[in-house]
Amino acid sequence: MLAAYIHILALLPLTAQILRQEPRRDIWLYGSIFLAAIGTMVLLGVTGEEVQSRGFAAALHWSELTVIVIFGGLVICKGPQQVWRLAGYIGGYLLLFAVLAAVFSVLLYRHDPATVHGPALYSGWLWAHIGSSLVTYALVTLAAIAAMAYVVQEHALKHRKPTRWSRRLPPLRDSEYMLVGFLKWSAWVLVIGIVSGFALRYVEGSPIWSIDHKMLLTLLGFATICTLIFIHEKSTLRGRMAVRFVLGAWLLLTLAFPGVRFVTGYIVG
C-alpha cells in the first residue's frame, strides 16, 4: 500500500502542470516527467508486476509507464508542436489510472494474477506483442487527450470566450495535427500487435483463427483508426467527427487491453 501512495504522490507534480499560469517546457516540466517515471518504476519493482502479467493493476501500471516514456521522449526531442502543453492533462489521466489500480489491487481483491508461461514465455512473438500493445495503447491515449484539447479549444473559439484552461492548451490546429498523427503511428504499431498475436497463438498451440473478445475489440479498434485516416486523407475530415473516431478507437482498445484484464480478474475470475 505504501508503494501505491508513493506512486500517486509521484504523479502529482505532473498533474499540477495544469495549474501553471503559462505552461513551459522547462526544468519543472522535465522534473515532473522524470519523477512520474521513477515513481511508476519503483512501484513495479516493489510489487513485482511483470510486463507479461495478466493482472488488471499490472496492465494499468505498465500502460502508465509507456505513456510517460513516450510523452517524455516527445517533449525532450521537441516532437509535435506544443505537445508539452498537454502535460497536466496527461498527469491527471495517469493519476486516475494509479488510483483505480490501487483501489482494485489493494482494497477489493487480493490474489496473484495469472501470467504467461510455457513455450510462449520464451518466444520473441510474446515480447513483440506486449511491446506493440503497450505502445499502441499509449499512442491512442495521447491522441484521445489531444482530441479533448481540440474540443475545449473549439468551444472557446466558437463562443469567442477563451478561458484560462483553453489558453494553456495547444492551438486548435496543433491539437488536430497531434490527434491524427498519433493515430497514424498507432495504426502501424497495431499491425505488429495483430500479426504477433496470431503468431503467439500458434506458439501456444491455440486455434489461430478463433476470434475472442480481445481480438475482436482490437480488430474493431484497428478498423476505426484506419477509417479515420482514410477519410481524413481523402476528404480532409475535420472537427467533432474526427474527435468521435479518436475517442471510439480509444474506448475499443481500452476494452481490449485493461478491460479484458478487469473482466477476467474481478468478474469472471
From TrEMBL:
TM segment ranges: 27-47, 59-77, 89-109, 129-152, 177-203, 215-233, 245-268
GO terms for cellular component: plasma membrane
Domain Cytochrome c assembly protein per the UniProt entry, residue ranges: 30-264
UniProt keyword terms in alphabetical order: Membrane, Transmembrane, Transmembrane helix
Any GO molecular function: heme binding
Gene Ontology BP annotations: cytochrome complex assembly
Superkingdom, taxonomy of origin: Bacteria
Entry protein name: Cytochrome C biogenesis protein
Organism listed in the record: Thalassospira lucentensis
Upper lineage: Bacteria, Pseudomonadati, Pseudomonadota, Alphaproteobacteria, Rhodospirillales
